[in-house]
Write a structure and sequence with these properties.
The structure holds two protein chains of two kinds. Chain A is 0% helix and 50% strand. Chain A starts with a strand and ends with a strand. The chains are: A mainly beta, B mainly beta.
Chain lengths: 113, 112
């Protein structure tokens, strides 16, 4: 069964540095998402992406964040200048169409020191 | 926007008992309600979902009920097993947005 994949599984970075988190959604899916989950807390929506553009974003997704789908398979989340409070698990998700469930990737644990 | 409340935050049961987790939502236009199971350090995985035109759905030991009038939905797990131990998240979607709003999660512990 196809799955969403994410790399790296764990990223450690220093405050102020840029990070890029990578995701490969399931191949026939059209809608892509990034979520974050601070340790022990609920999953929080960051951004959704459809037809090569952002369709929705949350208040968390400020100017420090950006997303890209540089080719037909990858979907990336960039954090321009990381802060300590960006430390969290970041999940990518995709789904084939509206009204269908989302499938989550295994997550990237980001640690900002 | 949508607000989802989930209770309890922690649920401890003996193996073989039933477990019930409840969620309420605020937006009456929400029409899709998935439940996710997240084992420690792993990704959330969809275990069951229900749409607003259905009142109940079952899949083996798992069932979900939806009361649209009261705006609440519940997850029922029967004959619990230790491998059911995980954090369970409810979510609500709809009302013009395709973005699920998640509840805070319930940590289910099944004691052998």
């Amino acid at each position: 069964e196809p799955e969403v994949t994410q790399t790296p599984s764990h990223q450690v970075t220093q405050m102020g540095q840029e990070v890029i988190l990578r995701c490969v959604p399931i191949s026939n899916h059209l809608y892509f998402y990034w979520y974050r989950q601070i340790l022990g807390q609920k999953v929080e929506f960051l951004v959704s992406f459809y037809n090569n553009e952002i369709s929705e974003k949350s208040e968390i997704f400020d100017d420090q964040f950006s997303v890209e789908r540089p080719d037909g398979s990858n979907f990336t989340l960039k954090i321009r200048s990381t802060k300590l409070e960006d430390s969290a698990m970041y999940f990518c998700a995709s789904r084939p169409g509206t009204g269908s469930p989302q499938y989550f990737g295994p997550g990237t644990r980001l640690t900002v020191t | 926007g949508e607000n989802v409340e989930q209770h309890p935050s922690t649920l401890s049961v003996q193996e073989g008992d039933s477990a019930v987790i409840k969620c309420t939502y605020s937006d009456s236009a929400s029409n899709y309600f998935p439940w996710y199971k997240q084992e420690l350090g792993k990704r959330p995985q969809l275990i069951i979902d229900i749409r607003s035109n259905v009142g109940e759905k079952k899949d083996q030991r798992i069932a979900v009920t939806l009361n649209k009038t009261a705006k609440h939905f519940s997850l029922h797990i029967t004959e619990t097993q230790p491998e059911d131990s995980a954090v369970y998240f409810c979510a609500a979607t709809g009302g013009g947005s395709y973005i699920p709003t998640f509840g805070r999660g319930t940590s289910l512990i099944v004691h052998p």
